[in-house]
Fold these 2 entries.
Entry 1:
Amino acid sequence: MKNKIIRSIFIVPVILYSLLLIALPIIYVLIISFYKNDSYGGMIRTFTLENYMSIFNSVYIGIFLKSFLIAVITMFICMIISYPFALAVSHKNAKTQSIFMTLVMVPFLTNSLIRMYGWIVLLRKNGVINQVLLSLNIIKNPLNLMYNNLGIVIGMVYTLLPFMILPLYSSISTIDYRLLEASSDLGANKWKTFTKVILPITFPALFNGGLMVFTPALGFFFIVDLLGGGKIMILGNLIKNQFLTARNWPFGAAIAILLIIITYILIMIYRKIGGKMDDLGA
Amino acid sequence: MKRKIILLLLFIFLLCGCTKEDKKVLNVLNWSSYIPDEVIRQFEKENNIKVNYSTYSSNEELLAKISSSKEGTYDLIFPSDYMIEIMINRKMLEEIDVTKLTNYNNLNRQYLGLPFDTDNKYSLPFLYATVVLAVNRDYIKDDITSYKDLINTKYKNDIVLIDDQRFVIGMSLLANGYSMNSTNNEELRIAQKWLEKLKPNIKAYDSDCPKNFLITEEAYIGYIWDAEAKLAKMENDSIEIIKPKEGIGISLDNYAIPKGAKNIEEAYKFIDYILDADIMHQILEGYPYNSVNIATDLKYKDDIMYSSKYIGTDYDNNSKYFVENIGSSIKNYDILWAEIK
């Protein structure tokens, strides 16, 4: 009995938290996505699919594709950087490992907006990188490192890298070394061991990291605004605009719901190809 | 031990005493970077009123904040022209009683009775902002008198624009000789074509601090709020402020009291305080927008901020255009905006 009470003391806050701060807002967004907006930015309580229909305008489809492209590129670059890093770190001794992983986590302690302003100082036309390259006579004219797609990808990769490194690291560092020994005993070279043993074991982590990088990359409008110069619109900006400039909350809600559905489909695909939900939570 | 508890209790009593004193409060919701902090501190001190000051960065954000919070959360807000019209229509504002304002006559009559609130029943003007061109003359030597001059291929990656769909599309409409608030599809199509031609010249859209682009010489031309242009000019005197001959966009911000406000007396006190010639001047020194206060204008007419250097060349026909509520046509603007980005 006493145990039950203690357990519920710990569980109830979590349930309340998820209900109040996750489930309720999503239900609210779902409901208003079927409303109609009036020209004064208010909402008319009806049931209409108009908002969902108007997403299928070539302009908005274009924004979906552009966002996906940026998110996919970000995801792959994160994978390419994180995988060797996680592999290398997991071979070090415990102390070095913890130092490296702390270094990965430290930037998290600073507000991401402030870190983006740091990048502006580095990347802009008269910024640190251009000044150094110019003074070393490596370049003649300053490079356009930001206020374009390059700037956006740099910002996205930088911000989301830890989300890829952490699951990969925790997965790689738990690989049973006897498996690798067995692989080499059976005649596999290093590459084969990697593709046949390490990669399959770490695949759920790779997918998990990919999902955790891909999904926010669709919505990080502040990176697009600051490092992309607000010239490019991704889903995040589109949704924000519906709420804060176009005064069309129902349409913004419909796009947000579609985004949730897409994320859900991605997780379903993952399950179809044999992934376990538990691994995603790792 | 007992003594400690008594001390603790006494301390708690003391704290209660502090909150019980019932200091008057005023909840202000205003644009960010609009009233210097000192002005608010002075007001608090002189009137013994605690001001809770929060900010927003677009009219739509204001609308969202008011409509999603409990009535009476805010006592004084500063919506722009077209937002006043929207808020009146949604019955979100209290009527204003000008007899409570001793400094009412300081207001410039020219800015009263405008179409969005013809009798000033719900709003009084606070100050206005215009969108102007700021050009760094160290790098851009050509004559610039019209928005059309901006689509010169020489200015690749040189322009910073405010990130505001109505003013940017409005500029394009003005450049092509149409109304800044056009809802005609053909005219909007031409405006879109023009903006696509401008696109290679655009370095960035930024509403938060576009003056930085000019000060750091990241961009040489800005289509930005006049206060930003003036602040940039203070840092870098080679910047010239230009008002194109097609006319400029203007945004008039107003005092308004939201429905159900709890501290209306304090709100009037604050409005009256700001209507004072010296206080308004102090505000304009911090954020050099444009005064609608005739007393300030007369008293400080020799101030550098009133010189043509900072005001910019004023053509005789320099018309100013308000952003108007265009109803559901905003959807077309939104699609156009997504298309040019």
Entry 2:
Amino acid sequence: MPHQPPSDGLILHDISVRFGGLTALEGVSLRVPPGRTVGVIGPNGAGKTTLFNVVCGFVAPTSGQLTLDGRPLRPRPHQLKKRGIARTLQGVGLFPSLTVLENVLVGESDRDRAEATLERCGAASYRDEKPAALPYAIRKRVALARALVTDPRLLLLDEPAGGLGVQEIEELGELITGLSCSVLLVEHHMDLVMTVCDEILVLDFGKPVAHGTPDEIRTDEAVADAYLGAAA
Amino acid sequence: MSGKMKIATIVAGVAVVVVLTLVFPPFRTYQLATVGAYLCVTAGLTVLTGLNGQLSLGHGALMATGAYTLALSVNAGWPLTAAFAAALVVTTVIGGVVGLAAARLRGPYLAGLTLAVAVVVPAITSTFDGTFNSDQGLSVALEPPPGTVTVEQWQAWLAWGAALIVLVLLQLLIGGRFGRELKAVRDDETAARLAGVGVARTQVLAFVVSAACAGIGGALFAVLAQSVSPGAFPLSLSLFLVMAIVIGGLGSLAGAAWGAVLLVALPALAHTVTEGIDAQRLEGNLPLALFGVTLIVVMLAAPGGIAALRPFKRSPFKRSPFTKAGLRPLRKRSKA
């Protein structure tokens, strides 16, 4: 049964994460409203993946609160599915010994739904292949299908365009735009981020430096400084 | 091959073995029975190590647990079926306890834990010698087989009946969702967690299933030998079991069957060789050496094990590590 649309979506309030003396995230607040796509960008080491790991329960925040649809979110990774959250990994994260269909069937045993999701992601014709035999772009599609098969209310996409060509990124953009669930997107490919996101949060050294619509982010000086370095 | 076909193959294979017990001489029938008992253990171990990626060096000790439980139960006057059930329950519980600890460990630490189990269990039999009769062990008083059936035939039918049940249940288990989850956890724990798989739960379950199979195998050994002693379950047995499933083909029940055959055939071959060259002093170590050589040869010729060989499809040497690494025969370059 599909998850009901969330009322409040995901809310991160004043999240900080410290690893000993290193501050990975500091005072990050963000809302991912129902049905919206929010991008998180920033240079390498800005804390984007740490933010994802906090939402997924791989990293416990040092301070701050998370809520999903008004209820506190204290996630444990294997229980995310029950809360309607799905995530793709920075690499493809497929299981090499399983076929494409079996990969999608892990954690979701409804075969019809798995095949329909593969069809939707454009990977149905590879259902009996092992991931190692597939082009990288197809593996990415399979990873996306495995996340979407649970019909999540919130989808976390960690650099989904990494390693893809221009045409493939365009197709990925169309796929993301067509999703009905909320999407939190970490991505370096700016064209994709600017095309699919309704809002963007920019992190630098773990701190939020800008938050706004794609147009606002494009013209933000702090964002340019973060990416290009402050003018001397 | 579909799941139903695999189960049909298992049933057909066991039926062939039962027919062989009717025509084989008693010693060969006893060897077949031993293969059946080993098969219960190797099938469980290949699920744990091959499909779930948990290395156990302590399955010999789990076998000993099953064997001693059966011996104590039978000697207490329990019927044989109840004694088997007791062996199953006790090893399952112990497997669960070891599995809970094992789920928190990885790589060499996991191997170290299971190795400790293999060392501790024989020591327990010496410490509590009032119950286990120390190194002398326990005899298992069994009733004679019914009618005109020979003892060896009865033992073989018992062993292969148990092997049939174990193999069919394991095939049903690994052919479905649980099998996918076992492999997913082995391949990528993080991705498995994100897909909703309880990694620790899956690992503990794998250990419990594998321990239960080892317990049944150990109980069968008690029936075959009609005695139990710590010397029957040395540390080297645990090593042989691991080598057997690797040589047979990790992660497949067919590989487990090949492994069980080797566990009986290689020591018998060693015995024949030492007798032939009149060097009985070698007999104790020769099986280990034979296993080592077989392991090296099979890994070079067929990294997937004997079960992965397709003799009529392609040469096994085409898939050797050398050719996989790109070391192919030199060919003349064609001119541009």
